[in-house]
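in:
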């Protein structure tokens, strides 16, 4: 008889790195991440042309 618990634990021990890799790939391919990176690139490009230093703080209108 095959012990599936032992088989799965050996399989997981061999390929534990695949689970975070698949999560990271799915994050990179998501529309949310692509939009976020696009907005960051546009903001950095605009700040480079304006001569201002980029900050992480959001500016509040007066």
């Amino acid at each position: 008889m095959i012990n599936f618990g032992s088989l799965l634990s050996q399989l997981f021990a061999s390929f534990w790195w695949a689970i975070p890799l698949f999560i990271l790939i799915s994050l990179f391919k998501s529309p949310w991440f692509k939009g976020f990176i696009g907005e960051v690139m546009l903001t950095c490009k605009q700040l480079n042309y304006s001569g201002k230093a980029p900050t992480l703080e959001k500016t509040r209108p007066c």
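note: The longest helix spans residues 31-50.
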